[in-house]
Design brief:
By secondary structure, this protein is mainly beta. The chain is built from one helix and 30 strands.
Length: 344
């Protein structure tokens, strides 16, 4: 009798919890809260930690950080490199971050004192172009770069960015295939999995389930064939579901072929019924609200059905969109020092 009552109580608690969780979901994003920053740089590097701590980086060697939700900002130029575009940044805490350049010189810098000083940790050859950064754990991270001599450039660190070295097994690239540094999110490291999204002559999703020892390649359904086309950003919804966005950055309003959903179990792509409102350079999954968010220069969209249909919710344009490490806030960055927090 006691066990029966206990079981019934457990079922009621589970049903109540589920209902409460569903009731906490908002119908749609309410827009963006634009924060005032002291810089005018184009910000493509973005790494939010919490509701209050956010790092960003971009053109003219710019870095900036807030620890009070944007009320004030620390900022500067990384090691005096005011002609270098740092399009990738990954923050570990309020004091420590790694920044990666796009273009030449191809360098990786690290700060451990809140940006006061930056130390060079790695420099690639004069042909390298580094496109993005992703960490699978606090210590283990990866940086993706454009192909060199028919192989992708992938660097890894196992000591929180103190030193970097190339993967032993690099996936091949066709001539004219490239990665995009528009939001530094064409590479995704999750546990033992690596996902690399590409564009240009061919748009592919390269996948490794063993940290880069072996690779598979899946041709993407997004627009491709020109250097301005392909996948620009990927995010994971969990359970092997990867959502890709992109398009053609020379045709900002073009909606055809600008997104897709890849399901690992089936090893196949699903095309959306209604894609985002144009070229999109960044996307992220917001599990708290079960939304996908996509941003680009012409506006912002969301999907609440796993990327099958997308709806616009703001005309504000951005380069990058990221989920805070704590999971409770979505941030975006763009031109002229623009940083914003999602309202919902």
């Amino acid at each position: 009798m006691f066990k029966s009552k206990l079981l019934a109580l457990s079922v009621l608690v589970a049903l109540f919890s589920c209902k409460k969780s569903e009731e906490s979901l908002s119908e749609k994003p309410l827009g963006w809260e634009i924060l005032e920053t002291p810089v005018a740089a184009s910000l493509r590097g973005l790494s939010p930690l919490t509701d209050e701590i956010v790092w960003a980086s971009g053109s003219n060697g710019t870095w900036l950080r807030t620890i009070d939700a944007g009320k004030s900002w620390d900022h500067g130029v990384i090691n005096g490199l005011d002609t270098v575009d740092f399009r990738s940044i990954h923050a570990f805490d309020a004091l420590t971050a790694v920044a990666v350049s796009a273009g030449q010189p191809a360098v990786i810098y690290k700060t451990a004192d809140g940006g006061k000083t930056w130390k060079l940790k790695h420099q690639e050859n004069e042909f390298a172009f580094l496109d993005g950064i992703s960490f699978s754990s606090q210590n283990h991270g990866f940086v993706i770069g454009d192909p060199f001599e028919g192989k992708w450039t992938i660097l890894q660190t196992v000591n929180q960015g103190e030193s970097w070295y190339p993967l032993d097994s690099l996936p091949g690239a066709v001539e004219g295939e490239a990665a995009f540094a528009a939001s530094a999110t064409s590479l995704l490291a999750i546990g033992s999995q690596l996902w690399l999204a590409t564009g240009g002559k061919e748009s592919n999703l390269h996948y490794s389930n063993d940290m880069g020892t072996t690779w598979e390649k899946f041709r993407a359904p997004l627009i491709q064939g020109e250097s301005s086309q392909g996948i620009f950003s990927i995010t994971s919804m969990g359970n092997g579901e990867i959502v890709a966005v992109g398009g053609d950055y020379l045709q900002e309003e073009l909606q055809e072929g600008n997104s897709g959903i890849f399901v690992l179990d089936k090893k196949e792509w699903t095309k959306p019924q209604a894609g985002p409102g144009g070229y999109r350079s960044g996307t992220v999954y917001f599990p708290q609200q079960k939304w996908l968010i996509a941003v680009g220069p012409s506006g912002s969209d969301f999907s609440k059905d796993g990327g099958i249909t997308w709806q616009p919710f703001s005309e504000e344009g951005f380069h990058a969109v990221m989920l805070g490490h704590a999971g409770g806030a979505v941030w975006a960055s763009g031109t002229k020092g623009k940083i914003a927090k999602l309202k919902y």
